[in-house]
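step: validate -> pass
step: tokenize input -> pass
step: predict -> running
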Amino acid sequence: MKKTTVTIALLQNAAEHSAEANLEKTISCIRKAASSGANIICTQELFTSYYFCQEENHHWFSLAEPAYDGPTARMLSPLARELNVVIVASIFEERMPGIYHNTALVFNTTGELLGLYRKMHIPDDPAYYEKFYFTPGDLGFRAWDTSFARIGVLICWDQWFPEAARLTALQGAQILFYPSAIGWHPAEKLQFGEAQFQAWLTIQRAHAIANGCYVAAVNRVGHEILPTLPNSPGIEFWGQSFVADPFGKVLAKASPNEEQILLTEIDLSVVHTVRTHWPFFRDRRVEAYDQITKRCLIP
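step: predict -> pass
step: emit ->
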């Protein structure tokens, strides 16, 4: 029988210049997290590089790697087995030339790659030009039985869509992990910064409540100005990775400006209790929701 208490670790880091340096730093953090008792460890979005989507530049496609036998998989699979931990790692996947994805890899304690989640919702906003790089995911919303919990993974822009959280939770996910890369445009921070952050925090706490599960959002930190855009304002990533329980209570939150390994012990039995006592899944009127698959209900 799986134990009901599980310790999760969110790796909130600032990006280094090279993929090798970022991978080395992350491996060090994974080892530290495991030595501190972590069972499930999650990286930030696209952890091996700067957030390159600040511009549309074919140069950055050189960062992409195969999912199954790329450098990240080759390093993290044996590490998960060695440390007896589950690892969720976000990469820039090259599926084939011309088809790339923003992908999360899920490694079990045996080192087995349980599966992939390919980011479904792809943004296209100033300094978040992801549609230039990523094909939308085609694997749907997924959950996996790991050695410690049944988990689902969604990525950054996915966090604003209640449908994504719901469809993942309906597959039994007890924890939703959200690797993220979100921050402020420096010129907007003073006027809009607090409201933007609170919206991000609130929507994900709401996913936890509506689905009776834990939500773990891991963000990067630091002010990134791409070397190819030295005169740009860059993005100031707001950090503040957090874990919320099935009542939406924030159990732990990381620094807004420092690298941190955020460790949080959670009790999975709470998921069963909350879903039983607050039976949102039972009371869904599934026969009345067919219009949700339509783009717009206005003629």
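step: describe -> The longest strand covers residues 86-96.
step: cleanup -> pass
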